[in-house]
Write a structure and sequence with these properties.
Layout: H1 5-12, H2 17-26, H3 32-41, H4 47-53
Amino acid sequence: MALSPELRRMILRGASTAELQEQAVKDGMLTLRMDGIVKIRKGITTLEEVVKETAGG
């Protein structure tokens, strides 16, 4: 994950993990689950594997 100027500001002011994740996604980061969906579409993995590896996320 690249540290954008906005993320840096948010970290310095003590933003929550949820707020940081939301901003990181806005900045172009893919979550593990989002990346898994890309890989499902490319035929690299299965839905079951993505769900198993990203449970709780």
